[in-house]
Amino acid sequence: MSEVKTVSGRGLPLRGSDIDTDRIIPARYLRCVTFDGLGAHAFADDRAASNGTHPFDQPQYQGANILVVNGNFGCGSSREHAPQALQKWGIQAVIGESFAEIFFGNCVALGIPCATVTPDHATQLQTALEADPSLTVCLDLVALTVTAGDLTLPVTLADGPRTMLTSGKWDSCGQLVANADQVRTTATQLPYLAWGAA
Amino acid sequence: MSKGTLFDKVWDLHTVGTLPSGQTQLFIGLHLIHEVTSPQAFGMMRDRNLTVLFPERTVATVDHIVPTENQARPFADVLAEEMIQALEQSCQEHGIRFYNVGSGNQGIVHVIAPEQGLTQPGMTVACGDSHTSTHGAFGAIAFGIGTSQVRDVLASQTLALSKLNVRRVEVNGTLRPGVYAKDVILHIIRKLGVKGGVGYAYEFAGTTFEAMSMEERMTVCNMSIEGGARCGYINPDQTTYDYLKGRDFAPKGEDWDQAVTWWESIRSDANAEYDDIVTFDAAEIAPTVTWGITPGQGIGVDECIPSLDNVAESDRAVMNEAYSYMNLQPGQAIQGTPVDVCFIGSCTNGRISDLREAAKIAEGHKVAPQVKAFVVPGSERVKQQAEAEGLDAIFQAAGFEWREAGCSMCLAMNPDKLQGNQISASSSNRNFKGRQGSPQGRTLLMSPAMVTAAAIHGQVKDVRDLL
Description:
The structure holds two protein chains of two kinds.
Chain A: E1 6-13, H1 21-24, H2 44-50, E2 66-68, H3 81-89, E3 93-96, H4 101-109, E4 114-116, H5 119-131, E5 136-140, E6 145-148, E7 151-154, H6 159-166, H7 173-178, H8 180-188
Parallel strand pairs in A: 1-2, 2-3, 3-4
Antiparallel strand pairs in A: 1-5, 5-6, 6-7
Chain B: H1 6-13, E1 15-18, E2 24-27, E3 30-33, H2 39-47, E4 58-61, H3 78-94, E5 97-99, H4 109-115, E6 124-127, E7 141-144, H5 147-156, E8 158-161, E9 165-172, H6 181-192, E10 200-205, H7 207-210, H8 214-222, E11 231-233, H9 238-244, H10 254-265, E12 276-281, E13 288-290, E14 298-300, H11 313-326, E15 341-344, H12 346-349, H13 352-362, E16 372-375, H14 380-388, H15 391-398, E17 401-402, E18 423-426, E19 442-445, H16 448-457
Parallel strand pairs in B: 3-4, 3-6, 4-5, 6-7, 9-10, 9-12, 10-11, 15-16, 15-18, 16-17, 18-19
Antiparallel strand pairs in B: 1-2, 2-8, 13-14
Helix pairs in contact in B: 2-5, 6-8, 13-15, 13-16
């Protein structure tokens, strides 16, 4: 696993609060047994309804890798297909006012940082990217800043997930499996496991 | 941080250790899987050559993609057939208990685990589905996870998690006639907002919840996630124990007595400390209907669609988006809004008590001619019970279609979908844009009784007029 200390590239502003994971990837695209090919369907319905004006369709944002959103992004369904679709489209980091918890955790598991900025700063960043889509954006998880042209703004990211990303240990599976002995010990302390259920 | 709550006690008991990141490695007592969010997890297991550590602690069923009309195999939808086959194969390969279609035990994962007594107080429960919060009704700490985390639970029976804060959401008093558990949770989300619960577990407490049946409590906890809270729970009590006793996987004999003693010990202490407390009065809650595109955009059925007055600047854009998408205007009464489709079912309201309430309203009436109305039982057992009680006959006589068990039009991964910009009265949990299968489809969330009233009148109707 690679360390995620900085993500640099171009930004993609996506305005609107409470954008749920059904919108990020509509349920009909969940009829699959792999995550392959989901990138093409990111925001499928929103894009179809926008007739080419959705930022994911606009030529100036093609190749962008840092998504800038507003409040409660990724609410609703726990589908990991949502961050998978974003990642496969090319998104490597999300910056926004706030994130739904399950979505945030799913992103960490894929090495995608979701960094929080104030509502004003989210809008400021979006406005800057709309004015100049070619701006170089850099999210720095060590310094906890995002820069875009002349703008330098503070970001926050909880210590636990931040450490996982910056140390390259965002895929927790190996660590969890390595503790199998302690897991078995914990299991012996749970009364219900002895009641023969399940 | 909270102290002495059920959440704290269960969290501590299931803590394996602290990970280098500072997160907790938490043991998962019950892992539920279904066909949508698990195949990729099994794929990751294969790629890494991992095995399932506690196969007996995972239980599988198929719910999201199952057709509710013709369930003959192979399914007409080849993608759905591929998904069910993948799950059948994975369960067989790893020795995981699987409740398949036709087994008599299949159904929506959040309906079957409680009805079989798999969900018990004091457990941690995880499932690759955000409505796992349902199981909190038993005093379990239950939450939705993504597919990578499904892999983690399969491989280690644990998850890497940060501890949540605990908010006590207290509702006291008696609900007025025509007001149901669904209205209570829609009211709470309306007041606390769809992101109000982010970072919190909700402890639902107070006399209103104490008076509720287990199925009503499940309806409340089910929608915790719609308020942003990853999990919601209710302390176990005699109602919980009475529900559990004698169920397939409930402790038996001496184990039962020990279990009750333990369950009592994990209840939140009288002097427990909470990170936040909010209080509501049950008498103020009306039959509630959502008018917009988030579950927080709910109003009493006798209210009008709110205007932008007194709305925070940050919420205005979503309100405007909702007026436009729903084609509803501020100031317009929600009652009288014509509906095209009426759906009774889902993990929120697809249990036997929901069907009984709906049948009570439907009996002796007819579905309005222009309305398509259908009932999808939450599980094969619910269906069987409803048929034993003659509810299917009541629904069919009234003009409702009576279907097989599954998630159906809650998220429309099967053939049950809205068409074009149809508007539905739905007993499900999400009114997101496009949620019910048509990119222009519109959803009004309400209780099963209110859905039935809407079906009969062809428009949103105050169920209190029919009682």
